[in-house]
Amino acid sequence: MVILIILIIGLAMISPYIRLNPAQSRVMLDPSFPLHYTVLVIHIFLAFIALVLGPFQFMRGIRQRHIALHRATGRVYLSCVLLSGTASIIVGLYTADFTRQTAFLMLAVLWLLSAIKAYIAIRQRRINEHFTWMVRNYALTLVAVVARIIVPLSIVVQLLRGQISLPINITEVLNKTLGTGIWLAIVLNLVLAEWTILRRIQKKTTERD
Ligand code: HEM
Q1: Whose CA is closest to 136, among 201, 89, 76, 189?
Q2: Hey, what domains does the chain have and what are their CATH numbers?
Q3: Which member of 59, 74, 127, 161 has the greatest number of CB atoms within 10 A?
Q4: Which parts pass through the membrane (predicted)?
Q5: Mutation probe of ligand 1 site: the residue of 19, 36, 41, 44 with most atoms within 8 A of C-beta
Q6: Pick from 91, 85, 10: which is nearest to 53 by CA?
Q7: Where are the alpha helices (DSSP H) in the chain?
């Protein structure tokens, strides 16, 4: 069910970019950077692959019975994060809104660092540490999805509180709300990631006692 929701939101997010038509871009393209659309599309498609592959990396059955598959998809996942994360730093430098820009750049740095930590840990056979960094990394991948849930909800809250009035200019409201939505999703997802990690440690300790 969760995988289906992730897939549906992910597909909805990438749909304006599937035809590779810059005129359909929802991101305002900077004419001073001719490769803006190309780098954006590289970011989007590789991030989508990571988004879809991520949940399968956490399935215990696959890890225990098909370790070669887990390793292969893990390599694809981490390569997508590293390339997409680098592309997102480049497009992030051209993001017009300051709140959104700082959120994206912080997210990109954390995304890259946690992927590198996860990779180093597994190369050195530190399995628990690898798992911990992968939980953090996938929580950051999911920020894109969670922000798309938070933003419409926060627009409804603003409407109910009379902070915006009808008829609304949707582009203006989205532009105002997206930056805060991404920051909120980063905080929420990282808190949930740490909670998941702590629960696993507690479970293991209880089993040992
Ligand atoms: C987790 C790390 C991520 C970072 C740091 C990041 C960063 C960015 C940045 C900087 C932009 C340009 C925004 C602008 O200039 O206004 C962007 C756009 C976009 N990203 Fe990501 N992103 C991430 C994850 C994802 C994921 C997992 C997806 C899923 C497919 C995704 C899909 C998109 C889409 C579709 C756009 C175009 C904006 C839109 O049409 O709404 N991103 N991202």
Answers
A1: 189
A2: 2-208 (1.20.120)
A3: 74
A4: 36-56, 76-96, 102-122, 138-160, 180-198
A5: 44
A6: 10
A7: 2-14, 36-57, 60-65, 67-92, 98-123, 127-141, 143-160, 170-208
